[in-house]
Amino acid sequence: MKIKKDKGKLFIISGPSGAGKGTICNRIIDETGLEFSVSMTTRQPREGEVDGVHYYFVDEDTFLMAVAEGGLLENAEVFGNRYGTPKGPVLERLSAGTDILLDIDVQGALQIRENYPDGVFVFLVPPSMKELRRRLESRGTETKEKIELRLSKALSEMAYVKSYDYLVVNDDLDEAVNRVKAIILAEHSRVNVTPEELVEEYSTETEEE
Ligand code: ADP
Ligand code: 5GP
Fold first, then answer.
1. Of 131, 150, 190, 192, which is least packed with CB atoms within 10 Å of its CB?
2. Inside any domain, residue 64
3. What is the tens place of the pLDDT at every residue in 33-87?
4. What is the pTM of this model?
5. If we measure between CA atoms, which residue out of 177, 169, 167 comes closest to residue 126?
6. CA distances from 66 to 91, 116, 145 (A)
Protein backbone atom coordinates (compact mmCIF):
# COMPACT_ATOMS: atom_id res chain seq x y z
CA MET A 1 0.00 0.00 0.00
CA LYS A 2 1.22 3.48 -0.85
CA ILE A 3 0.87 5.39 2.38
CA LYS A 4 0.75 9.14 1.86
CA LYS A 5 4.03 10.84 2.78
CA ASP A 6 3.40 13.17 5.68
CA LYS A 7 4.84 16.59 6.11
CA GLY A 8 7.54 16.25 8.71
CA LYS A 9 6.43 16.35 12.32
CA LEU A 10 7.62 18.80 14.92
CA PHE A 11 8.48 17.16 18.25
CA ILE A 12 8.96 19.46 21.22
CA ILE A 13 10.70 18.17 24.33
CA SER A 14 10.59 20.43 27.31
CA GLY A 15 10.49 20.27 31.07
CA PRO A 16 12.57 21.36 34.04
CA SER A 17 16.26 22.09 33.68
CA GLY A 18 18.25 18.98 34.59
CA ALA A 19 15.41 16.55 33.75
CA GLY A 20 17.56 15.11 30.94
CA LYS A 21 16.22 16.86 27.81
CA GLY A 22 19.64 17.32 26.22
CA THR A 23 20.71 13.77 27.00
CA ILE A 24 17.53 12.27 25.54
CA CYS A 25 17.54 14.54 22.47
CA ASN A 26 21.11 13.45 21.68
CA ARG A 27 20.09 9.81 21.85
CA ILE A 28 17.01 10.39 19.67
CA ILE A 29 19.07 12.24 17.04
CA ASP A 30 21.67 9.46 17.02
CA GLU A 31 19.16 6.62 16.89
CA THR A 32 16.35 7.93 14.64
CA GLY A 33 15.93 10.04 11.50
CA LEU A 34 14.93 13.13 13.46
CA GLU A 35 16.95 16.31 12.99
CA PHE A 36 17.75 18.76 15.74
CA SER A 37 16.84 22.43 15.58
CA VAL A 38 19.87 24.47 16.65
CA SER A 39 18.68 27.39 18.78
CA MET A 40 20.00 30.92 18.94
CA THR A 41 21.15 32.12 22.36
CA THR A 42 22.82 35.08 24.04
CA ARG A 43 24.38 32.82 26.68
CA GLN A 44 28.14 32.28 26.67
CA PRO A 45 29.32 28.94 25.25
CA ARG A 46 30.23 26.29 27.82
CA GLU A 47 33.45 24.36 27.45
CA GLY A 48 33.18 22.02 24.47
CA GLU A 49 30.14 23.75 22.93
CA VAL A 50 30.51 24.55 19.24
CA ASP A 51 28.85 27.50 17.49
CA GLY A 52 26.32 26.25 14.94
CA VAL A 53 26.25 22.76 16.45
CA HIS A 54 25.00 23.18 20.02
CA TYR A 55 23.73 26.74 19.61
CA TYR A 56 24.19 29.80 17.47
CA PHE A 57 25.90 32.03 20.01
CA VAL A 58 24.96 35.65 19.28
CA ASP A 59 25.01 39.02 21.03
CA GLU A 60 21.92 40.77 22.37
CA ASP A 61 21.53 43.08 19.32
CA THR A 62 21.67 40.21 16.83
CA PHE A 63 19.10 38.29 18.86
CA LEU A 64 16.71 41.27 19.10
CA MET A 65 17.10 41.87 15.36
CA ALA A 66 16.07 38.24 14.66
CA VAL A 67 12.98 38.74 16.87
CA ALA A 68 12.08 42.05 15.16
CA GLU A 69 12.41 40.48 11.72
CA GLY A 70 10.07 37.64 12.70
CA GLY A 71 12.90 35.14 12.23
CA LEU A 72 12.16 33.09 15.35
CA LEU A 73 9.38 30.54 15.82
CA GLU A 74 9.43 31.29 19.55
CA ASN A 75 11.75 32.96 21.99
CA ALA A 76 12.10 33.28 25.72
CA GLU A 77 14.36 34.53 28.45
CA VAL A 78 15.57 31.58 30.51
CA PHE A 79 17.71 32.09 33.61
CA GLY A 80 18.86 35.52 32.41
CA ASN A 81 19.75 34.59 28.82
CA ARG A 82 17.70 34.72 25.63
CA TYR A 83 16.95 31.63 23.58
CA GLY A 84 14.99 31.22 20.36
CA THR A 85 14.21 28.77 17.57
CA PRO A 86 15.20 29.95 14.06
CA LYS A 87 12.02 29.74 11.97
CA GLY A 88 13.30 29.26 8.39
CA PRO A 89 15.29 26.04 8.83
CA VAL A 90 12.48 24.40 10.83
CA LEU A 91 9.67 25.24 8.39
CA GLU A 92 11.77 24.31 5.33
CA ARG A 93 12.73 20.91 6.71
CA LEU A 94 9.16 20.17 7.86
CA SER A 95 7.89 20.95 4.33
CA ALA A 96 10.53 18.58 2.93
CA GLY A 97 9.14 15.79 5.11
CA THR A 98 11.85 15.78 7.79
CA ASP A 99 10.92 15.39 11.45
CA ILE A 100 12.40 18.04 13.72
CA LEU A 101 13.20 17.86 17.41
CA LEU A 102 13.24 20.92 19.65
CA ASP A 103 14.73 21.04 23.15
CA ILE A 104 13.19 24.20 24.56
CA ASP A 105 11.86 25.59 27.82
CA VAL A 106 8.22 25.65 28.91
CA GLN A 107 7.57 29.28 27.87
CA GLY A 108 8.79 28.51 24.34
CA ALA A 109 6.72 25.33 24.12
CA LEU A 110 3.59 27.28 25.04
CA GLN A 111 4.27 29.81 22.26
CA ILE A 112 4.70 27.02 19.72
CA ARG A 113 1.49 25.38 20.92
CA GLU A 114 -0.32 28.62 19.98
CA ASN A 115 1.36 29.13 16.60
CA TYR A 116 1.93 25.54 15.51
CA PRO A 117 -0.72 23.32 17.14
CA ASP A 118 0.29 20.35 14.96
CA GLY A 119 3.43 19.96 17.08
CA VAL A 120 3.80 16.97 19.38
CA PHE A 121 4.51 18.15 22.93
CA VAL A 122 6.44 15.93 25.32
CA PHE A 123 6.95 16.94 28.95
CA LEU A 124 10.03 15.33 30.48
CA VAL A 125 10.35 15.12 34.25
CA PRO A 126 12.88 13.61 36.66
CA PRO A 127 11.75 10.78 38.98
CA SER A 128 12.01 13.06 42.07
CA MET A 129 13.20 16.48 43.20
CA LYS A 130 16.02 14.75 45.08
CA GLU A 131 17.25 13.14 41.86
CA LEU A 132 16.82 16.43 39.98
CA ARG A 133 19.12 18.11 42.51
CA ARG A 134 21.63 15.27 42.21
CA ARG A 135 21.65 15.56 38.40
CA LEU A 136 22.07 19.33 38.41
CA GLU A 137 24.90 19.03 40.95
CA SER A 138 26.64 16.22 39.09
CA ARG A 139 26.38 18.02 35.73
CA GLY A 140 28.58 20.68 37.31
CA THR A 141 27.59 23.51 34.96
CA GLU A 142 25.83 25.73 37.50
CA THR A 143 26.73 27.46 40.76
CA LYS A 144 24.94 26.43 43.97
CA GLU A 145 22.78 29.55 43.73
CA LYS A 146 21.76 28.80 40.13
CA ILE A 147 20.90 25.21 41.06
CA GLU A 148 18.51 26.48 43.77
CA LEU A 149 16.88 28.77 41.19
CA ARG A 150 16.42 25.87 38.74
CA LEU A 151 14.94 23.66 41.46
CA SER A 152 12.37 26.24 42.54
CA LYS A 153 11.50 26.99 38.90
CA ALA A 154 11.06 23.24 38.27
CA LEU A 155 8.19 23.10 40.75
CA SER A 156 6.32 26.02 39.18
CA GLU A 157 6.87 24.57 35.68
CA MET A 158 5.16 21.29 36.64
CA ALA A 159 1.80 23.09 36.45
CA TYR A 160 2.18 23.40 32.68
CA VAL A 161 2.00 19.66 32.14
CA LYS A 162 -1.64 20.21 31.12
CA SER A 163 -0.48 21.89 27.90
CA TYR A 164 1.42 18.80 26.74
CA ASP A 165 0.40 15.65 24.87
CA TYR A 166 2.76 13.21 26.59
CA LEU A 167 4.50 12.87 29.94
CA VAL A 168 7.76 10.93 30.15
CA VAL A 169 9.50 10.25 33.47
CA ASN A 170 13.24 10.08 32.92
CA ASP A 171 14.25 7.57 35.58
CA ASP A 172 16.02 4.81 33.68
CA LEU A 173 17.54 6.54 30.63
CA ASP A 174 17.04 3.66 28.17
CA GLU A 175 13.40 3.34 29.12
CA ALA A 176 12.79 7.07 28.72
CA VAL A 177 14.47 7.04 25.30
CA ASN A 178 12.32 4.08 24.27
CA ARG A 179 9.19 5.89 25.38
CA VAL A 180 10.08 8.95 23.31
CA LYS A 181 10.76 6.67 20.32
CA ALA A 182 7.37 5.01 20.88
CA ILE A 183 5.71 8.43 20.83
CA ILE A 184 7.41 9.23 17.52
CA LEU A 185 6.23 5.92 16.03
CA ALA A 186 2.69 6.38 17.35
CA GLU A 187 2.49 9.88 15.90
CA HIS A 188 3.46 8.46 12.51
CA SER A 189 0.63 5.93 12.77
CA ARG A 190 -2.09 8.57 13.06
CA VAL A 191 -4.82 8.37 10.45
CA ASN A 192 -3.72 10.69 7.63
CA VAL A 193 -5.94 9.39 4.85
CA THR A 194 -9.62 9.91 4.05
CA PRO A 195 -11.99 6.89 3.79
CA GLU A 196 -12.33 7.68 0.06
CA GLU A 197 -8.56 7.57 -0.47
CA LEU A 198 -8.28 4.31 1.41
CA VAL A 199 -11.12 2.65 -0.54
CA GLU A 200 -9.63 3.96 -3.80
CA GLU A 201 -6.24 2.50 -2.89
CA TYR A 202 -7.67 -0.98 -2.23
CA SER A 203 -10.12 -0.87 -5.18
CA THR A 204 -7.29 -0.12 -7.59
CA GLU A 205 -5.45 -3.17 -6.30
CA THR A 206 -8.52 -5.40 -6.92
CA GLU A 207 -8.88 -4.11 -10.50
CA GLU A 208 -5.19 -4.73 -11.20
CA GLU A 209 -5.35 -8.38 -10.11
P1 ADP B 1 18.50 19.17 30.68
O2 ADP B 1 18.93 19.24 29.23
O3 ADP B 1 17.06 18.82 30.85
O4 ADP B 1 18.88 20.38 31.46
P5 ADP B 1 20.64 17.15 30.86
O6 ADP B 1 20.38 16.30 29.69
O7 ADP B 1 21.79 18.11 30.80
O8 ADP B 1 19.31 17.93 31.33
O9 ADP B 1 20.83 16.16 32.12
C10 ADP B 1 21.19 16.66 33.41
C11 ADP B 1 22.22 15.69 34.03
O12 ADP B 1 21.56 14.46 34.36
C13 ADP B 1 23.38 15.34 33.10
O14 ADP B 1 24.55 15.26 33.86
C15 ADP B 1 22.97 13.97 32.54
O16 ADP B 1 24.10 13.19 32.22
C17 ADP B 1 22.19 13.35 33.70
N18 ADP B 1 21.11 12.43 33.31
C19 ADP B 1 20.23 12.57 32.30
N20 ADP B 1 19.35 11.54 32.28
C21 ADP B 1 19.68 10.72 33.28
C22 ADP B 1 19.16 9.47 33.79
N23 ADP B 1 18.09 8.86 33.25
N24 ADP B 1 19.76 8.91 34.85
C25 ADP B 1 20.85 9.51 35.43
N26 ADP B 1 21.39 10.68 35.01
C27 ADP B 1 20.82 11.29 33.96
P1 5GP C 1 21.07 25.60 28.59
O2 5GP C 1 21.56 27.01 28.76
O3 5GP C 1 21.25 24.78 29.83
O4 5GP C 1 21.62 24.95 27.34
O5 5GP C 1 19.49 25.68 28.36
C6 5GP C 1 18.68 26.31 29.32
C7 5GP C 1 17.23 26.12 28.95
O8 5GP C 1 16.95 26.78 27.72
C9 5GP C 1 16.83 24.65 28.74
O10 5GP C 1 15.61 24.44 29.45
C11 5GP C 1 16.59 24.54 27.25
O12 5GP C 1 15.56 23.62 26.96
C13 5GP C 1 16.13 25.94 26.93
N14 5GP C 1 16.28 26.28 25.51
C15 5GP C 1 17.27 25.91 24.65
N16 5GP C 1 17.03 26.40 23.43
C17 5GP C 1 15.87 27.07 23.50
C18 5GP C 1 15.07 27.78 22.55
O19 5GP C 1 15.39 27.90 21.37
N20 5GP C 1 13.93 28.35 23.00
C21 5GP C 1 13.53 28.26 24.31
N22 5GP C 1 12.38 28.83 24.64
N23 5GP C 1 14.24 27.59 25.22
C24 5GP C 1 15.39 27.02 24.83
1. 190
2. no
3. 999 999 999 999 988 999 999 999 999 999 999 999 999 999 999 999 999 999 9
4. 0.94
5. 169
6. 16, 19, 31
- Model pLDDT for residues 163-199, shown as the tens digit of each residue: 999 999 999 999 999 999 999 999 999 998 999 999 9
- Hey, whose CA ends up nearest to atom 12 of ligand 2? 104
| Nearest residue (CA) to ligand 2, atom 11 | 104
Cβ < 6 Å from ligand 2: which residues?
14, 17, 21, 39, 43, 74, 76, 78, 83-85, 103-105, 107-108
Residue 71 located in a structural domain: no
Who's near 67: CB < 8 A, 6+ residues apart?
75, 84
Altogether, the residues listed in the chain come to a count of 209
Find the domain containing 203 and state its range.
Answer: 10-37+98-208
21 lines ligand 1 (CB under 6 A): yes
